[in-house]
Hints:
Shape: globular
CATH architecture of the domain at 238-391: 3-Layer(aba) Sandwich
Oligomer: single chain
Distance between the termini: 56 Å
Low-confidence stretches: 141-152
Strand content: 15-25%
Order of helices and strands: HHHHHEHEHHEEEHEHEHEHEHHEEHHE
Mean pLDDT: 87
Number of helices: 16
Helix content: 25-40%
CATH class of the domain at 238-391: Alpha Beta
Amino acid sequence: xxxxxxxxxxxxxxxxxxxxxxxxxxxxxxxxxxxxxxxxxxxxxxxxxxxxxxxxxxxxxxxxxxxxxxxxxxxxxxxxxxxxxxxxxxxxxxxxxxxxxxxxxxxxxxxxxxxxxxxxxxxxxxxxxxxxxxxxxxxxxxxxxxxxxxxxxxxxxxxxxxxxxxxxxxxxxxxxxxxxxxxxxxxxxxxxxxxxxxxxxxxxxxxxxxxxxxxxxxxxxxxxxxxxxxxxxxxxxxxxxxxxxxxxxxxxxxxxxxxxxxxxxxxxxxxxxxxxxxxxxxxxxxxxxxxxxxxxxxxxxxxxxxxxxxxxxxxxxxxxxxxxxxxxxxxxxxxxxxxxxxxxxxxxxxxxxxxxxxxxxxxxxxxxxxxxxxxxxxxxxxxxxxxxxxxx
Length: 392
């Protein structure tokens, strides 16, 4: 029988060739496979024998696996890995190789690139080749942790709000109120969590139903969604308290620091410490600001960027991230910050600084409704920060 070209191009597995060659020797120690030497546990042997005797092992099984087995897998995933799954999302295969091969064949088109950390199992490379894909081997784990995810996201042009919306969606039934003022907007959830977002004068609708059909091209919808995710995701025990950026980061180790979005108190600290800082802000007028026409040049040579979290809702985040060189440390800052680890999927985000309010504190909402800004409502909240654990 003629074999296809993609099959004949695949070389033999060195591991399997060594295994076959070893059969001519006695007492060989196998260090290539994670093959247990203790045998199958007795209770599993007994269960298999009982299944055969009871006629449960004859004939065809369900193609996606027995429901009872998948139900037990659901329980295990929840118990051991905190993964919420349902049996209709599970497929039982003979082994990992079959499962991975099925996944690759179902998702990879000819020419698609698949990233594999090395060292890797050679079979994974062959699976990709059988699907007419291309493997991209990465040799440094640091690159995998800090750059690969962000590089993929940048190349795909998936901006943070879209990324978070695709993962968490929007449940307007969780919202108890929407408040909007001249400078900020806020969302309060039924559990009392409060999220805020600067709005630059763009007032948003206070009826949650208006956002049942979300439009991420609409700036008001983006402001609302940022505040919503701020409320939904910021109330965890994952962050650390006392988030004054200048006390936490030693900026003296950087040579070219850029600030996107004017934070006057931080600028004053840089001036007091005689540390050079280049500041850009399109919406404000101040003597410390540099012309926006020079922003791209400054960003390209920067080794640290203090980035306003408003860049996420105003949709300039990706443009800024893409213009940076590799190994440029980025620090997100502001009350609009979404304290979610998904943000670390983007290249070189090191720390996110934000604010968390006491639940059900309507004083925050009153300040925002009456046109107040950061100076007025910040004392009612706690400064917190979230670190990229891959850098710790």
